[in-house]
Amino acid sequence: MFDRATRATATTDTAAPDVLVPEEVDVVARVGALPVDLQATAVIANVWRAAQEARNQLERQVLRPEGLSWGGFSLLFNLWVWGPMETRALAASMGCARASISSLCDTLERGGLVERRGDPSDRRLVCVGLTDPGQSTIEHVFPRFNAGESRLVAGMSADERELLATLLRRLVHSVREVTDQ
Question: Distance (Å, rounded) from C-alpha 46 to C-alpha 102?
Fold first, then answer.
């Protein structure tokens, strides 16, 4: 993947998946002579780049017109899929700090989309759930969000999508194994 000919070129052409993206050319120029695992860098950096690009597109095209941030949508989606959750569990599920959950809940609660309730057995715990308008909002927004997801992967065949999903699942499991050690 990182042969000398490939290092010198970059493209945004989706028909040339083996050619580096422009950012990779700069990274390889900087670290290519070091005794590092360039393939690991390519995998992680491109996962990150792809996730950021997808997030930016979906936020701009789908969520902002609906008055939602990425975090707000993620919180609504988590509650829609798994039901009411304690704020610590919600933070863990979303991969963010409890303070972020609190801030997101403040905004969504003002909009009437979620409600917080104290735990009767432990007043330190707070449970968050969707309101009826919150349920309606996520049920309205998710199909549009999914249509955006479909547009983002339209340049891939069904087999390529399945292979990528499988490889990304394997990466998620691998990351979790390293984290658990």
Answer: 31
